[in-house]
């Protein structure tokens, strides 16, 4: 029996080996089939990479990893495509298509700033839409002589329709976000009044009818032409009627559309990678749109078909807020409130982005955190012009990710906050969301009014948000208005926090007397006749011309000490204005205020803070001007 078993086992093993060799050699004999399977495997790997990319982009901590996975997935997809049999080694055509595209993309990425990211993303969505449309037309003309297929006709028609709607809508969204056409175009533009819904419905119905006729007889190209015309009208008309407040939803919606357009192209090209990737992008964009609509207490259809103010709210008793005559404060009062607070929450809005104040805001937060204060950011889901807009701006300002909190996590913390900074936000922190008579009733908002004190940074008191309604919180007793340009106001506050401003906050009488005594001593030094001191060496102090630098190398008090040591001082006219020091103060300290050219031609030593650069008045590089000096004292960046 053992011999019998051994024979059966040997025969079975040989049979399996023989079958495996037959399959292997048959696959090797059909090289095209083998290559296609390898490419399909690479496509599957790319799809997994794209899914990992989306998973990584879910959180700021893993966003870099997500971007890396996305890049690797795209590289694998492009390289593996060149191994397809139908590619025919057409590397020249591939280069003609890829090199200009890579150059355009690189230039766009290098030139765009963080404020312009939303319109750039909208424009990139338009590229996906027009690509899907062109793929649909090319597939139609290539297979026109092939036997008719209703399924193929449906794929072609739907792919072109989704692509052209995405393209038209994305172009209008990009123009709105970029401010092309003025402020009126940036808001909700209603072209046909109450007839707009009827026109949209008619266009959609016409597209369906044209699609039915096209599928019945795909030799009639007019069906596709009608499809493009009606799809362009729908994309244009629906997006142009959307106001600026709903732009975050529109951006994510167009992202979803671009995904479905990609999936449609995948069906047309029989490409699994495009189908999987498009489905993932389309579904994630739709989910994100739903989340943001929920945050605004609005339906997706309402965003597409109307703007703020068109909803019928339940009528209820309107809250009467006692108007405060004047609750405006200056930077010194803001600093006092900040100095006393230990628990601070900052709520940024689109106003911060438009004022480009994120760098100053980030520095303020980091400086306060170093002082031992508890500082956090509250990020509203629809703050800014696209999902994650505030996170991107704060990341640019080097704000630690641990400082950023989502609305639902930090909203209960406002009750225990000593101070809240509301920077350029209106609707996202409007208590009218609790009022049934308000058009934004039910919208999730930041409950900033629950804090002990609130400081609102706005350009002016009369301005309203995208919803077009006033914010009664501005008149609450615990609210103070810090009006003006947000960037300038934050920069002034940052100077005080860093100790570079004029503000002094003596706490006891003894300190006041000491300060006054020091001032008197300084005044006596200024009254002393400094002309008796010989000027052995002349020191020149030029104006700092590097952007953002407000300091000056020598202050009047130091100049007096140098004059007593026998140094002559020449200060460039207007050099101390940015630091709040007038030319008269330098002259009283014994310095001579001169024109820029005399600083470099009549001094042996020049002292400045920043590194040498091109002088805007003399039109000569400061390094060249320093050739005739005995010594140039300045900071030098070794990396430059």
What would your notes on this structure say?
With 640 residues, this protein is an alpha/beta fold. Helix content is 54%, strand content 8%. It has a six-stranded parallel beta sheet with strand order 3-2-1-4-5-6. Helix 23 links the parallel strand 10 and strand 11. The longest helix is centred in the N-terminal third of the chain and has 29 residues. The N and C termini lie far apart (86 Å). The N terminus is likely disordered.
In short:
With 640 residues, the chain is of the alpha/beta class.
Mean pLDDT: 79
Structural class by helix and strand composition: alpha/beta
Strand order of the largest sheet: 3-2-1-4-5-6
Proportion of residues in β-strands: 5-15%
> Rg from C-alpha positions?
34 Å
Helix content, binned percent:
40-55%
Low-pLDDT residue intervals, each spanning 5 or more residues: 1-10, 307-325, 502-524
Notable features of this structure?
six-stranded parallel β-sheet, alpha/beta, 11 strands
